[in-house]
Amino acid sequence: MYLDPRTLLFSLILANSLMVLSLFVASSAKGREQGLNKWALAVLFETFTWLLVAARGMIPDELSIVAANLFKTASHALILAAIYKFQRREFALWKFFLPVVLMLLTTGLLIEDIAGRFVWCGLIYAFQLALIVRALWSDSELRKGRAWRLLLGGACMILAVLAMRAAVALSGFADFAQPQNHIAMHWVQVITFAAVMATVLLGSVGFVLMIKERTDRENLQMAMTDSLTGVPNRRALMYQAGLMRAQRSGLPMSLLMIDIDHFKRINDTYGHPAGDEVLRQAAALMEKRLRAGDVLGRYGGEEFCVIAPDTEAKGAQV
């Protein structure tokens, strides 16, 4: 099977363009708050990169090489910014501008040196990818889900491709490492195209799934938490009690029902806002008195419930 570089470039550009369109269309207000618009812009810059690569030979090298690498660098920086936005962290601007400036200097100085350009530009890209991997790995909340692994896998895949292209270029076969040329398609180019297309697809799907996973966790938290006091609600208590029973450890478990006396009088005398504050303060005080393994929840109204594992009836009365 003959693989033409221009055909593969067209396929890559088309796939990226459709992904950009889909991301911008799907980017709701909540999605924008979590960085989806930045991710879509990153894929758009990636598309510009490959458009310039495809036009190599028809436009000046300053555009096809320098501008293309600048767009690629900006794309990686926007991916990092999108991840920081998702994590609700402050994004330092130097992480965007430093790689872009370094890439401008590197491509400008090494525009005629293919092997040197591949090595030094590859190091800049590797630095950006290392920042992305670090941002993903350092977020324990993010790692509760699975979608982040798609982004991590894509970053590691591109790191491997960068190392492969640099090794091929230093071995004296720089032409084979270029994504677009007029010679027969080389296996290095095939791997590069496949890795880039897979990374854009996996990364974009992974980022959307990360947003979905967080939304699902937040919805579950809302469904299982009493909005007034912040402690587990009746549904969460029943679930926790059933879970402890299912473990069948053979240890005793106590259930404490706690009722605030004369609570109706508080509401009637001081009003419901004062009654709500009493419930909040009561829940906070009880939480401070519980052991690490105990579970406090609001059963309903002014009634609270405590699930005390590994506790006999006598111990529960203390």
Explained architecture:
This protein has 318 residues and is mainly alpha-helical. It folds into 2 domains: 5-223, Rhopdopsin 7-helix transmembrane proteins, CATH 1.20.1070; 234-316, Reverse transcriptase/Diguanylate cyclase domain (Alpha-Beta Plaits). It contains 13 helices and 3 strands, in the order ααααααααααβααββα. A hairpin with a 2-residue loop joins strand 2 and strand 3. The longest helix has 37 residues, at 187-223.
List descriptors.
2 domains, Alpha-Beta Plaits, elongated, single chain, Rhopdopsin 7-helix transmembrane proteins, 3-stranded antiparallel β-sheet, mainly alpha, 318 residues
How would you summarize this macromolecular structure in one to three sentences?
The chain is mostly helical and 318 residues long. The chain has helices at 5-26, 29-33, 36-54, 61-86, 94-109, 114-137, 148-170, 174-177, 187-223, 234-247, 263-270, 272-289, 313-316, and strands spanning 253-259, 295-300, 303-309. The chain is 69% helix and 6% strand.
- What is the CATH level 1 assignment of the largest domain? Mainly Alpha
How far apart are the first and last residues' alpha carbons, in Å? 79 Å
Number of strands: 3
**How many alpha or pi helices?**
13
- Poorly predicted segments: none
Main sheet makeup: 3 strands, antiparallel
- Give the rounded overall mean pLDDT: 86
CATH topology of the largest domain: Rhopdopsin 7-helix transmembrane proteins
Number of domains: 2
User: What would CATH call the architecture of the largest domain?
Assistant: Up-down Bundle
Name the helix and strand elements from N-terminus to C-terminus, one letter apiece: HHHHHHHHHHEHHEEH
Please give the share of residues in helix. Answer: 55-70%
Shape: elongated
Strand content: 5-15%
Biggest β-sheet: strands ordered side by side in the sheet: 1-3-2
Which secondary-structure class do the elements indicate?
mainly alpha
Provide the gyration radius in Å: 28 Å
